[in-house]
Specification:
The complex is a heterodimer of chains A (257) and B (440).
Chain A lengths: L14 E10 L2 E11 L4 E5 L6 H8 L7 E6 L2 E2 L5 H6 L2 E4 L11 H5 L14 H15 L15 H14 L4 E5 L7 H16 L3 E5 L3 H7 L2 E6 L2 E7 L5 H10 L7
Parallel strand pairs in A: 3-8, 3-9, 6-7, 7-8
Antiparallel strand pairs in A: 1-2, 1-4, 4-5, 9-10
Helix pairs in contact in A: 4-5
Chain B lengths: L17 H9 L3 H25 L7 H26 L7 H24 L6 H26 L4 H20 L9 H4 L10 H29 L7 H23 L5 H10 L17 H19 L1 H11 L1 H6 L4 H27 L10 H11 L11 H20 L4 H26 L1
Helix pairs in contact in B: 2-16, 3-11, 3-14, 3-15, 3-16, 4-5, 4-6, 4-14, 5-6, 5-14, 8-9, 11-12, 15-16, 16-17
The chains are: A alpha/beta (257), B mainly alpha (440).
Chain lengths: 257, 440
């Protein structure tokens, strides 16, 4: 997996978030945090609930506006004020909550905010369903419920709709917030394979996870956060599970006593 | 390969009974069928009750059904907008007062202001008055939406305030007076003998409708073939085309068999130098103009809701506001637009209602908000958001109006009417809950 190939970090990073700060009502949710991501790399974001990892990532995906800091995409200063901006930089996000409109079908969710329209400006449901069928055939061949609202789907099927949405639009930077939290073993395996495949295509992935084993297996580097601050970023090949646990729980660097 | 719409779907239970197979093949909305069934029951019930108890069934007569269609228009137009408001988890309690306010503004424009500028009964008066009314409604609605979206005041409070404020504003503008008479062309919007399009016009409308139904069935089939989706059986497509066309033609026959009363015919004959033949002169009403306005609003709004991004976003916001925002939808601006649209439709309703009355009074539209909300809810719009259709709301308006008209015809007094309408609203929502639970 990740150990078989080293990531070339000599060029410009795909994403470089520098000195990011955001606070909510006096609480520093993210406090001077810097992380970066290179093409073909998976960077795990680790930390307790409330450590600030989801908040950090929502700044990148445009859901929150940061108080200070800078974001560079391909070395260029990027302005991300809303989800639309993030999408224009090919940043796609799979949220922990999946962020699906339960009353709409798979195709409507997949294309939400980016509907295919006919020359007259009307949404082209048939074309969107056809495209959805194509991508689903690749991601989850068992998926058949194209006409039903996604509320009628199982957890795994809903997850595949959320993943399809991120993958379909040629993401270059993919944010996955606990992508396997609600999944069974088989579906988790599917997500792992997908991550490996996307990585091979040169896509950079931020992977938020609670599961240290997931991170050790799938990620190249891990950035650990605690109380809104960055504890450190390490190469997963250089550390043990216990080192990571120490960073998460105690906030100490590997090797520290 | 899929050869029939959902046949490859393992989740679809095997279908046995012929009724279920029929509904499956035609892909008809069972909710819609239920509502049509309830409506048929109400109509036949009132007619039979009248025939048995009063010796005359007055409900299923061209005259009554024509009047019913006109009376439904004003509520129906607003119900179309209320669907969007409720689908996005809001409510608008102010529509009745906004209607009253718009009516007053239109009345002032066409009775007090314009005649001094362009002269009484000038051709442009009704156009300017209607435009002023529509702009007024749109601005009022947009203002409500702005307060709700950008200042986080709940829609219930903003529009409850609006319910009081706009009624008061209307009173101030009109100084409490009834403004009349309105422009004679403007009056046609209300649907009187002149405000209907006659037999020939109605046939044209009906035939256009038939062509549209057949074309949509054929085009829909072709679309599905292009994309390789499953098709409805040919007989099911035929069935839909036939029933759709028969409904159109039936409606035309109905409105054309309601004739002008003798007094109006005599006056008309005198004015146009026509001698009335021995057997009498029969001039059909045809479709009333307000009904055509309602139909146009219904068709346009259905298109908007099912075929435009705006409509898609309305449903998405109703289903999951957070997801909609994360998908890059500007939910605040959408809220402003939705309430502005509601205001626009209240303005349009105001034109219809005041034209029908022939004057603008401050009390116009009182309690309409309740009927409009009831129509939308009876029509299947879920107060939890995300679910609702335009045709359902219009049908809901017809149901409400049928109950009212029916009870008047058979001589129930006002107190009982209120009890029945109130109970039906609660019952309808209860049945709808049952339906949704069992259909899941």
């Amino acid at each position: 997996m990740s150990t078989s190939k080293t990531i070339d970090r000599s060029g410009t990073p795909l994403v470089d978030m520098r000195d990011i700060c955001i606070s909510f009502g006096g609480v520093h949710a993210v406090d001077h945090v810097s992380v970066d991501l290179y093409p073909g790399e998976v960077v795990g974001l680790l930390g307790h609930n409330g450590a600030g990892k989801s908040t950090l990532i929502k700044i990148l995906s445009g859901a929150y506006a940061m108080d200070s800091g800078e974001i560079y995409v391909d070395g260029e200063n990027a302005t991300i004020n809303n989800p639309r901006d993030a999408r224009s930089y090919n940043i796609e996000t799979i949220y922990q909550t999946l962020a699906l409109a339960d009353n709409l079908d798979a195709a409507s969710n997949l294309f939400l905010g980016r509907e295919l329209v006919s020359p007259l400006g009307f949404v082209n449901d048939d074309a969107m369903e056809a495209e959805t069928r194509k991508i689903m055939a690749r991601l989850n061949p068992n998926f058949k419920k194209f006409k039903d609202p996604v509320s009628a789907l199982s957890g795994g099927q809903r997850q595949s709709v959320a993943i399809a949405r991120a993958v379909y639009f040629n993401a270059r930077i993919l944010i996955m917030d606990e992508p396997t939290a609600a999944l069974g073993p088989h579906e988790t395996q599917m997500v792992s394979e997908l991550i490996t495949q996307l990585k091979a295509e040169g896509i950079g992935i931020f992977l938020i996870s609670h599961d240290i084993h997931d991170v050790m297996e799938l990620c190249d580097r891990a950035s650990v956060m605690k109380n809104g601050k960055l504890v450190g970023t390490v190469d997963v090949d250089d550390v043990s599970d216990d080192d990571l646990l120490g960073m998460i729980i105690l906030g100490k660097q590997p090797g520290e006593a | 390969m899929t050869d029939m719409s959902n046949s490859g779907d393992p989740a679809t239970p095997t279908i046995k009974s012929p009724v279920a197979r029929f509904i499956h093949a035609t892909e008809l909305d069972t909710r819609l069928l239920g509502m049509l069934g309830a409506l048929a029951l109400i109509w036949i019930g009132f007619h039979v009750y009248g025939a048995v108890v009063n010796g005359f069934g007055a409900f299923l007569t061209p005259r009554n059904l024509w009047n019913l269609s006109v009376q439904t228009s004003s509520i129906g137009i607003m119900a179309c907008g209320m669907v969007l408001v409720i689908v996005t988890r809001h409510i608008d309690l102010s529509v009745g007062s906004v209607l009253g306010f718009c009516a007053i503004i239109m009345g002032v424009t066409q009775v007090w202001l314009l005649p001094q500028l362009v002269g009484l009964e000038h051709w442009s008066i009704w156009i300017i008055a209607v435009i002023v009314g529509l702009i007024t409604g749109t601005l009022v609605g947009a203002f409500h939406g702005y307060l709700i979206a950008y200042h986080s005041i709940p829609a219930f409070i903003v529009t409850l305030g609006g319910l009081l404020a706009w009624r008061g504003a209307g009173f101030l503008v009109a100084r409490g007076e009834t403004i009349s008479p309105v422009d004679s062309t403007f009056r046609l919007l209300g649907g009187t003998a002149d405000g209907a399009i006659g037999a020939t016009g109605s046939w044209i409308v009906g035939l256009v409708g038939v062509v549209a139904v057949v074309a949509s069935v054929i085009l829909g089939r072709r679309q599905r073939i292009t994309h390789g989706f499953g098709l409805r059986p040919v007989w099911a497509d035929w069935f839909i085309a036939l029933v759709g066309s028969a409904t159109m033609i039936g409606a035309v026959l109905l409105v054309n068999s309601y004739y002008w009363p003798r007094g109006i015919v005599r006056r008309y004959a005198a004015e146009n130098n026509i001698t009335i033949p021995q057997e009498g002169l029969f001039i059909s009403y045809g479709f009333a103009i307000p009904v055509l306005i309602l139909l146009a609003v219904g068709i346009i709004m259905t298109l908007v809701m099912s075929r435009t991004r705006f409509g898609r976003y309305v449903y998405a916001i109703g289903g999951n506001p957070e997801a909609a925002a994360l998908a890059g939808i500007n939910t605040k601006w959408m809220t402003v637009k939705i309430f502005a649209l509601m205001g626009f439709l209240a303005g349009l309703s105001a034109a219809v209602a005041s034209a029908r009355l022939g004057s603008a009074t401050n009390a116009l539209g009182t309690l309409d908000e309740l009927y409009v909300i009831a129509a939308a809810v009876i029509g299947g719009t879920s107060l939890a958001g995300g679910v609702g259709t335009i045709y359902g709301a219009i049908l809901g308006a017809v149901v409400m109006q049928s109950l009212q008209t029916g009870m008047v015809l058979i001589g129930f007094d006002a107190a009982i009417q209120q009890i029945v309408v109130g109970s039906v609203l609660v019952l309808a929502v209860y049945l709808d809950n049952l339906y949704r639970r069992t259909s899941k």
